[in-house]
Amino acid sequence: MESYRERIKQEAVRRNIPALFHFTMIQNLESIVEHGLVPRQVLDDARHPYLASDLFRLDGKPETISVSISHVNYSMFEAKRHENPGSEWVVLLLDPAVLWEKQCRFCFRNAASKEMTSARGAQAGPKTFSWLFIADDGTDCGWTPARNDAEVLVYGHIEPRYIGAAWTDDMSLARYVQSELDRISNEDLTTFVQPFSWPGIWEQAD
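and the corresponding structure tokens:
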């Protein structure tokens, strides 16, 4: 009998999900390259310095890392940039294997929304994962979730080896970002340079 992790993998591969996305302030990149993405709760307990995009985890899950599937959560990213004027940002593209190799909570809306924080029962597993891609009218949205604010909460540590590329909107930062990526792997990891806007760094045919 196939495990639930294997079924999530099959669904992700069938949908041709290209990457998971996580945005952060550029000052955090050096530490992320060294240690990976680490939940806020762990950083706070260790008193490890970092810059947070918000003061509180309104989803009530400081033990998790928030990522989105196939594109950035543009409304949230825009809001965070507006709240932190003058800050410089980088978007990390992660291997989709995180979805089945890590314990995840799948949220069809923003994890801090009332619908998600008040939800009872499991929000994990292949069935819940599949629901992310189905619109209210039953349309299957293919490789991208039906709602832009859908997100995945990943429990625990996401190691640097899952980082596959980075995206910045500033050419002057690209050299620094690339130098940090080069510390992760001998493989060529790419730094994309283009505006932080929809539809993002690529489009895929359905």
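(Above: one complete record from the training split.) The radius of gyration is 16 Å.
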